[in-house]
Amino acid sequence: MKRVSLAYLVAFLIVNAAADEWNYPTPNSNGVMSEPESWGGQCDNGRRQSPIDLAQAAAVRGEFAPFFFSNYKLPIKQAQLTNTGHSVQISNRDPAVTIQGGGLGGRFVLDQMHFHWGSEHTINSARYGLELHLVHHDIRYASLEEAAATRNGVAVLGVLFHVSAQPNMHIDVILDTAADIRNEPGKEASLKGKLSPHYLMPANRSTYFRYEGSLTTPACAESVIWTVFTDSVGVSLEQIEQFKAIHDQNGKELLNNFRSVQPLNARALVYATEWDQQDNNFAEVPRLHAMLIGLVGLLVATSKCLY
Ligand SMILES: *[C@@H]1O[C@H](CO)[C@@H](O)[C@H](O)[C@H]1NC(C)=O
Ligand SMILES: [Zn+2]
């Protein structure tokens, strides 16, 4: 009896450890990645994977309505910072923190934010020091997990950080807390200060790359509408080095946690700018409104006739 339950426990532990057992390949002494990731499944076989190189020359022009950020300026409520063993992550449980517009075709709620040191996306092959991912799911789905099973169910905003002489005070809030959980993957701590998603975003949010891709960690689900802003945010070299001191699940320093760039294959890469309001005739809008109201009225009248 005792032996059976012990065997069960061991099997359970092995299965659960295996589920999270993936790593970023360690770079060689020249800082060059010696081998590609081989994470299996869709990560290896997918044709719509992320990240990619955002090459201006490969992109087509697009114009979308402006993004609309709801409650992005509010500090995250009861913010917890987690060392996931692959990154540091801040979860959001407030369903009122949402994005709309930007050609997304719906409303998406913020689930979590995490960082990659060494950016995942490159712009014209240039890598940035840090990349923030703000992960959202379409409110038509009950959870991020459910949305991740559907094409375009997840919207991730990618923010690139360039090295600057000036430290970033908002990143410092994260690093101050990260120091306490640095050596303990799986551990979380209350954020030692206020942090609003808005202050981690670039000033110019009207120019960005847009494409359909995947989550950049196993199981690499191909459900993500990607937005990577071309304007970047400053962070000091010393701050980037503090991220590198975070330990992974093997107790080693997580020196970098970016996945290698994936082929674009048959996808469109869009270089998007904001819909230029001056070039568009706003006189058309009230006329369209009047037409819609008329149409609704007609439908109501018709439905009344039917009953
Ligand atoms: C954002 O940046 C783009 C490209 O540099 C520029 O054309 C555009 O005018 C900027 N928008 C704002 C609101 O500053
Ligand atoms: Zn990420």
Automatic annotation (TrEMBL):
<dbReference type="InterPro" id="IPR023561">
    <property type="entry name" value="Carbonic_anhydrase_a-class"/>
</dbReference>
<protein>
    <recommendedName>
        <fullName>Carbonic anhydrase</fullName>
        <ecNumber>4.2.1.1</ecNumber>
    </recommendedName>
</protein>
<keyword id="KW-0862">Zinc</keyword>
<dbReference type="GO" id="GO:0005737">
    <property type="term" value="C:cytoplasm"/>
</dbReference>
<dbReference type="GO" id="GO:0008270">
    <property type="term" value="F:zinc ion binding"/>
</dbReference>
<keyword id="KW-0732">Signal</keyword>
<dbReference type="InterPro" id="IPR018338">
    <property type="entry name" value="Carbonic_anhydrase_a-class_CS"/>
</dbReference>
<keyword id="KW-0456">Lyase</keyword>
<keyword id="KW-0479">Metal-binding</keyword>
<comment type="similarity">
    <text>Belongs to the alpha-carbonic anhydrase family.</text>
</comment>
<dbReference type="InterPro" id="IPR001148">
    <property type="entry name" value="CA_dom"/>
</dbReference>
<dbReference type="InterPro" id="IPR036398">
    <property type="entry name" value="CA_dom_sf"/>
</dbReference>
<comment type="function">
    <text>Reversible hydration of carbon dioxide.</text>
</comment>
<feature type="domain" description="Alpha-carbonic anhydrase">
    <location>
        <begin position="20"/>
        <end position="273"/>
    </location>
</feature>
<feature type="signal peptide">
    <location>
        <begin position="1"/>
        <end position="19"/>
    </location>
</feature>
<dbReference type="Pfam" id="PF00194">
    <property type="entry name" value="Carb_anhydrase"/>
</dbReference>
<dbReference type="GO" id="GO:0004089">
    <property type="term" value="F:carbonate dehydratase activity"/>
</dbReference>
